[in-house]
Amino acid sequence: MNGENKTLLVLAAVVIGIILGIFLEQKISGEINVVSSDVKKLETSVKEIDSSIKAIDSSVKDVKTSLAEKDKVSFIRDMQEIGRRMLSLDYAGKFARWDTAKIEIDELDKTLQDAAILDSQRASSLTDFRNTYIPKLKDAASKKDAKSFENVWAETYNACIGCHKGAGSPPSAIETLREISSEVDQLSG
After folding, report:
1. 74 lies in a domain?
2. Structural domain total, the chain
3. DSSP helix/strand/coil, 164
4. Does residue 5 belong to any structural domain of this protein?
5. CB-based contacts of 141: which residues, under 8 Å, 6+ apart?
């Protein structure tokens, strides 16, 4: 190979190298553009997911608020039911209806359990109340002694009132049961 051929060969190699370089640069540039486009799409998707998560969080908060409101209404109903059960117990004791008293004590216990489930802040107090007064009421009813039952009922009632006063319940909620109870006293003579 002579010098001219070598020069042409080198020149051809350089031209081929330049063409390959341009081709590779365009291919890489195209791939970078595709990757860049994919990254932008991914960023958009991430933003949409973030927006969806925020919407879900908002919905969860709404559901929690709604459930809390329903639980509060249910808790109030349970408290009213507890008052009604206490009143029925008062009647049962004063009129020596011991089978009725036992049923009312069981129902009172179930309602206290339900109320404790609905209000986690008061669950401990309600459980303590149940553990203290339900056994006393059951024991007094099983003895079928009206005076003993009346004393335990009054102790239980006073514990109810103490809790309501401590929780800041309106006086009307406390006085209603007391008024009805005094009417039971008048009826039982």
Report:
1. yes
2. 1
3. helix
4. no
5. 92, 93, 98, 101, 102, 105, 149
